[in-house]
């Protein structure tokens, strides 16, 4: 959703994987051909690195990485490093520091009047997901 609302090309380097079980090795897979169903959110090909899975992207970091490969993930393709993999923080980054790159820079996804409610919901969702 963030990639459609805020950043312009070339950010992000790839779209989020669709809501489906990961591939056979437990890694999120990129597709070369989109799903013909317009209501299905599919990942695009990894335009930044050319990899087939998110696990390969994480392993390409300096020093590698053999742990979990989680989404969402904001990737620095120049330094081959994960910038952030926390959804709330990624939204805040795009909403503030990267807003000038947005298709709709006037769109405020975290208005001050809603900030307390957003933080409340974030704590509920993240506590439920990471337990």
How would you characterize this protein structure?
The structure is a single chain. With 131 residues, the chain is mainly alpha-helical. Helices cover 26% and strands 5% of the residues. The chain is built from four helices and two strands; from the N terminus they run ααββαα. It has a two-stranded antiparallel sheet. The longest helix has 15 residues, at 115-129. The relative contact order is 0.16.
What would you say about this model in short?
By secondary structure, the protein is mainly alpha-helical. The protein has helices at residues 2-5, 54-59, 87-95, 115-129; strands at 74-76, 81-84.
Q: Which properties best describe this structure?
A:
4 helices, two-stranded antiparallel sheet, mainly alpha, 131 residues
Spatial arrangement of strands, main beta sheet? 1-2
State the separation between the terminal residues, measured CA to CA: 24 Å
Would you count the extended β strands for me? Answer: 2
Q: Helix amount, in percent?
A: 25-40%
Low-confidence stretches: 10-21
Mean pLDDT over all positions: 74
Which descriptor suits the 3D outline?
A: globular
- Tally of DSSP helical segments: 4
Please state roughly what percent of the residues sit in beta strands, choosing from under 5%, 5-15%, 15-25%, 25-35%, 35-45% or over 45%: 5-15%
Order of helices and strands: HHEEHH
Task: Return the structural class.
Answer: mainly alpha
Radius of gyration: 15 Å
Please outline the major beta sheet.
2 strands, antiparallel
